[in-house]
Amino acid sequence: MRALLAALAALGLAIAARAATPAAVNTAAIAEGMPATLSEFALFADAAKQAPAAGVVPYRLNTPLYSDGAEKLRFVYLPAGAKLAAGEDGLLQFPVGTALVKTFAFGEGAARKLIETRLLLHRAEGWVALPYQWNAEQTEARLALAGARVPVTTPAGEAISYRIPNKNQCKECHGLNGAVIPLGPKARNLDSAWLDGLVAKGALAAVPAGSDTFPKWEQRAAATPESAARAYLDVNCAHCHRPGGMASNSGLDLRWEQHDPTAIGIGKRPVAAGRGSGGLEFAVVPGHPERSIMVHRMASTEGGVAMPELGKATVDRDGLAAVERWIAGLRR
Amino acid sequence: MRFPPESRKLSSGLTYRTVSSTLAPMRMTLIAALALSLSPAALAPAAAATREVAAGPDAQARLQEALILAEPGDEVVLGPGRFVLTDGISLDVNGVTIRGAGMDRTVLDFSGQKDAGEGLLVTSDNVVLRDFAVIDTKGDGIKSKGADNIVYYKVRVEWTRGPHPENGAYAIYPVESTNVLVDSVTAIGSSDAGIYVGQSKNIVVRNSVAKFNVAGIEIENSYGADVYNNVAVNNTGGILVFDLPDIPQQGGKDVRVFDNVVVENNTPNFAPAGNIVATVPTGMGVMVMSHYNVEVFGNTFAENGTGNVLVVAYPNETKDAKYNPYPVNVLITGNTHGRAGWKPALGGSEALVQALGGQFPPIMHDGNGRDIVIADGVPVLSLGLTRAGQPRSEAQPQILPPASAAKKPSLPAIVLPPAMEAAVRR
ipTM of this complex > 0.95? Predict the structure, then answer.
């Protein structure tokens, strides 16, 4: 009852606030419910142009998750007076009331088409993931609880059926021990200058140790093969392949901080790979990318073989090359 | 586990159900209205609902939406017919029943599946899956992960082209769960195991049929399982009890395999290499690898070309210091043995096969482990190996004469929460 009254009170306050300053972010929508349209959140001054509203801050990740080459526009809305802390593994701990916003787009310049905007909302009961699909006119994005498929052409020129994940699939990647968590904004994968900005604003006490250690993906050639590949695997695989993640039962743990050779796949036999093994014996064979199940599965687009299982219709040639380079250089 | 109060089974055997078309937004409105009157009733959970989903156009979105909007206690009822699905579907709400019109009448067809590692994924607790089929998924059939108190009842999972190395690995795939009931299911064509229970606790697999899989039924790295009254036929190996290294839950223990019919498991092994089941010899009845406390009794074995029972150590090299590759405390007794061993396909034993004139006794033991009691009234081939990973070419084979019971099965029966047993009586 108390929660209900609080929610009703919040609703009342939000309505009052909106009446006073109509351009403000709709904090009530962040707090509860499943709004049918993205515009109800008022996160953008001009959503079609992806111009954020006041208080909604863009950011980038050093090494991003590959999503068929989609351009990704990331924003965070922090509630007034927000104080962040860096938790275990450097994941920033955002207060209740935070909205993380990620828009997926294909096409350059005037031809750019927004496909979907995913929201991660930190509510009193935990993080909630909601997917919104953009209409063809690019005027509105509507809630797509069950996901959708959209034909797109990737930057590499491949025509694919792009998958907007359903609400449950959001959790398949964002789930840890049954709860939804953000994945991207870890201090080690964020730019120091951006973190400095948070400190200057008073939202962060200090830039966390180990910040900005993942290579900037476009500069990966200058990084060591190990750091480029391990950062890539952390960002693209470790949300499932870690204790408490969707693939915990495999025993493969691809987090940056995991250093046990077997746990990261070296000489590790498959557990539940089935035909995903491709007839190969080990996840990673030092010196032999061509004999490593990891490479075989990354290089596939076939359901039941392809890794990652979700959100991938094309092979990430750059990511694959980074992993192959690392495995080729591992001592036999 | 809670069940929809609207559903009542009448003595006539018919199920009477009031169908509610309540959708979540309407329900929220109702709660809000009650809240405004400040009635304590506002705190009560919304009445459980039945959400009907029919086969037909747009089944993917309609079914997935019903599974997302379901609330604890709801029953999602799938109509008869073929649901043509393009992507995996999933359930993440506790206490939901998914019920079809029968394992031959309601068919979830994934032959056009584009995405996801399985057909149906369940990640919530107290879920009942019953009376429908899942066919031709690209990866696994039905997977439930971290889903406690899961019931699979009268479901069929099948790859309709029959044995093929590109079929999915597991048909029925509960993993990392406590309290698992698999009852009266049918699993056909898996390229790994038909019914696979991994890294779980307190498990019952019964009254089920597994055929044309590499492994019919497999219990792996689990604690406490009863496998009984099943039929395992035409697999490569009928029933496997394995403990493997380098995975989170280890030290598999306390498994009883009894009163099963395990016959004619002679389908050539079609598992992709690299998987442990690719090492299962074609023509195997029951195989125990590593593992603690296994009892195999009261089963009917016949027409398994390599043998009816095989007890071995884990054969591969591992750096896992926590792992015990040896079987410990295994009892094989009181089984009925028909013809076996006339076509042995035990890898690395070619010389031995020749020496024995191509005929193996019904039971084999590689010689490894401790407290291995085989007293089943039939001869036993011991390979006389003394360490895990030792090549079979180093075997010191010996045929042991039939022994009679020196020991009785003593592992306790698995007891599941009453609500799970009640779910399969309804």
Answer: no
